[in-house]
Known about the structure:
The chain is α+β, with helices and mostly antiparallel strands. The protein has helices spanning about 15-35, 45-55, 60-110, 150-155, and strands spanning about 1-5, 10-15, 135-140, 175-180, 200, 205-210. Strand 1 and strand 2 (about 10-15) form a beta hairpin.
Amino acid sequence: MTYQWGEEGKRAPILGYQESCLYAYVSDMRQACLRRPQRPQGTALSSRQRRKARPRGFTLIELMVTVALLGTMAAIAIPNYLGYLEKARVARAIVEIRSFETAIDLYKSDTGALPDTLAQAGAGMPSDPWGWPYEYVKLSGGEEEEEWEEEEEEEEEGEAQPRRDRFLVLINSDYDLYSKGKDGESRVPLTAQASWDDIIRANDGSFVGLASEF
């Protein structure tokens, strides 16, 4: 390559055709690089930031902690829910027994006698909130003076009998009306464990509620 002196006293190369084309291409590339927008300082992401920006799934420990928390919440919530549900059923049975009382009182006021069955009083064949039929026992004559052994024998045969308290005294003088409760089992004395969850009418209607609370 030969040089010549330029106008400002500097040597400039004397280029051939191919060299001038190459020189022009390099100059254009340099200008394009200079015109390219530069990334502002501080915008480069660190490796930690790139890891945070990258979506990731749950780890095994996180899943185990989540399952444990859900199990704890279920262990607390489910018994409470079942307890509230059971209280709601007891409250419903009390309301229904009160409504049967009203039907029986209306029948007695019209006929002067107690009905033989709930169906005769116009209550149909109702079932309690647990699906068991309500028990109705009409008390009359000297039934309340019958021997305990005879009543216990009849009870074993599945026939409803007048209910008695812990002193084996009748809890009503007119009629008994009760639900057998959740377990569907009942015994003549309210102190029997099978009778604790019964919803009973006692003291001739002044008490309606759980047998365990009477």
